[in-house]
Amino acid sequence: MPRHVAIIMDGNGRWATRRYLPRVAGHQRGVDAVREAVRASVERGVEYLTLFAFSSENWRRPPEEVSVLMQLFRLMLEQEVAKLHASGVRLRIVGDLAAFDGVLRELIARAEEKTAKNTKLVLTICANYGGRWDIIQATRAMLAARPELAGGFGESDLAPFLAMAHAPEPDLFIRTGGETRISNFLIWQLAYTELYFTETFWPDFDARELDLAIASYRRRERRFGRTSEQVREARRAPADDPPPTARVDQRADA
Ligand code: IPE
Ligand code: IPE
Ligand code: MG
Fold first, then answer.
1. Ligand 3 centre and the CA of 10: distance in Å?
2. Which residues' Cβ are closer than 6 Å to ligand 1?
3. Are 7 and 174 in contact (CB under 8 A)?
4. Per-residue pLDDT, 237
5. CB neighbours (10 Å) of residue 202?
6. How distant, in Å, are the alpha carbons of 49, 51, 185, 198 from that of 10?
7. Quick one: pLDDT at residue 246?
8. Could you tell me if 81 and 115 are in contact, meaning their C-beta atoms sit under 8 angstroms apart?
9. Using an 8 Å Cβ cutoff, are 204 and 30 in contact?
10. Nearest 5 degrees, angle CA 212-CA 217-CA 223?
């Protein structure tokens, strides 16, 4: 089972357009798919689920659509947190939160605080998130905290300052909606993640679709630069040399 699944929830607009509905109807149905994905992840023992809800580039959309997305985000924080808390889900919101209004920021802080001790699943929502923003903000934060690193630093110096430092790197990446691109999602953290793309639009993504993605993941051999022979050898003698799949928490330079 992948420990960490990261998803670009794409295709809401096209789901709606195909039904002669306004695009926002697709976003509304997308919220149901989020609930289902959370439930199915908990059921399957996934430990971290990370969802791309709004990218730093999505501000370019028509203002009415941006405003509906903000309203849905706010509704989710107002209405879903109690249920998430009851199911043992810890909620994290990552991204450039300074762009959100005070009410939204307050709701985010309260939701994170309320669910902070939950351990069943860590649900991370990426909102106003961009992979490039993340690398820049992490570098700035690192240099502010440790000015002596200005002369030179490595991956393990930067890693604790990245927005996803609370989670191991994703094992499985899923993008719905048929596009085969990363769209500035977790560009640092996806370096060795198994990628899975499906034509299914996000509102239609259900537990069965998640199982298909997980089945595809389980057929892959994660080599992390090694040869297939080395990986199989390491599996036979796990005590001396843990297989690379057990080492996702470790950074490449660790
Ligand atoms: C993903 O669906 C949701 C967000 C980006 C917020 P889209 O709205 O991108 O749907 P398509 O790609 O236009 O179908
Ligand atoms: C990526 O989807 C962002 C989210 C799902 C939140 P987009 O639909 O915005 O991606 P592009 O612009 O088509 O690559
Ligand atoms: Mg899209």
1. 5
2. 9-14, 54, 58, 69, 177
3. yes
4. 85
5. 28
6. 16, 10, 12, 10
7. 45
8. yes
9. no
10. 170
Using alpha carbons only, give the angle 173, 245, 236 rounded to the nearest 5 degrees: 145
Q: How many CA atoms, within 13 angstroms, populate the side-chain half-sphere of residue 239? A: 0
Q: Which residue stretches of the chain have pLDDT < 70?
A: 239-254
Q: How far apart are the first and last CA of the chain?
A: 24
Measure the CA–CA gap between 88 and 115, rounded to whole angstroms: 8
Distance in angstroms (rounded) separating the CA atoms of residues 67 and 105: 16
Q: List, chain by chain if needed, residues with CB within 6 Å of any ligand 2 atom.
A: 8-10, 52-55, 57-58, 179, 181, 183
Residue spans of beta strands (DSSP E) within the chain: 4-8, 48-55, 89-94, 121-129, 172-175, 194-197
Listed by start position, the domains of the chain span: 4-220, 230-254
Of the candidates 53, 50, 70, the one whose C-alpha atom is nearest the C-alpha of residue 12 is 53
Give the Cα separation of 164 and 123 in Å (integer).
11
Comparing CA positions, the residue from 122, 95, 117 lying closest to residue 108 is 95
Residue 19 backbone phi and psi in degrees, to 5? -100, 15
Residue 75, number of CB atoms within 10 A of its CB:
12
CA of 136 to the centre of ligand 2 (A): 21
Spell out the CATH class of 4-220: alpha beta
Name the β-bridge partners of 89.
Answer: 121
- Confidence (pLDDT) at 241: 54
